[in-house]
Amino acid sequence: MRTMVDHRTVQVLLADLQDSVVALSRTSSPETIRRSAGVLGRVARARRTLAMCGVTSEIVVLHTALDALADGYDVIVLADASGGVSERTENAAFRQIEAAGGTVTSVASFVTSMVRDFTSPTGRIAITALHDLMGWRSRPRTFPQLVVQPSRPPKENT
């Protein structure tokens, strides 16, 4: 994957996330696929690079990615937000996408490739979404600005 993805040029394609189709995945649980797809919907914007995921990796994702590459799009397939029929056939599909010029990566790698400053508004959204993805819900959901106040002498008891 390129060093930095420009979030202003990315659109996310969630390929065939119907409940009955997502349940067919043998490589990622339906919960993982839905959670990862939700993160994508929160952090990416529509443009020229296609970030895609879905079920089945060997059919829907593969052919959508190959068509998009042939049409001149930059394609990034998010493996942990996709599901395949088997690990072997899914890996073969991912290799085919990479051979055609696409990139296969994780949601966390993709999101962090778009954001370098996690204190910016976009960065806060991204880091919060990643914390949710990784199950770190006990972490604070907001990132308050550091405010330095002059120290005050303690109150005396009277």
From TrEMBL:
Domain Isochorismatase-like: 45-108
Keywords: Hydrolase
GO molecular function, a single term: hydrolase activity
Pfam families noted in UniProt: Isochorismatase (PF00857)
InterPro entries noted in UniProt: Hydrolase_YcaC-like, Isochorismatase-like_dom, Isochorismatase-like_sf
Gene3D superfamilies in the record: Isochorismatase-like
PANTHER family: HYDROLASE YCAC-RELATED
Protein name according to UniProt: Isochorismate hydrolase
Species assigned in the record: Nonomuraea rubra
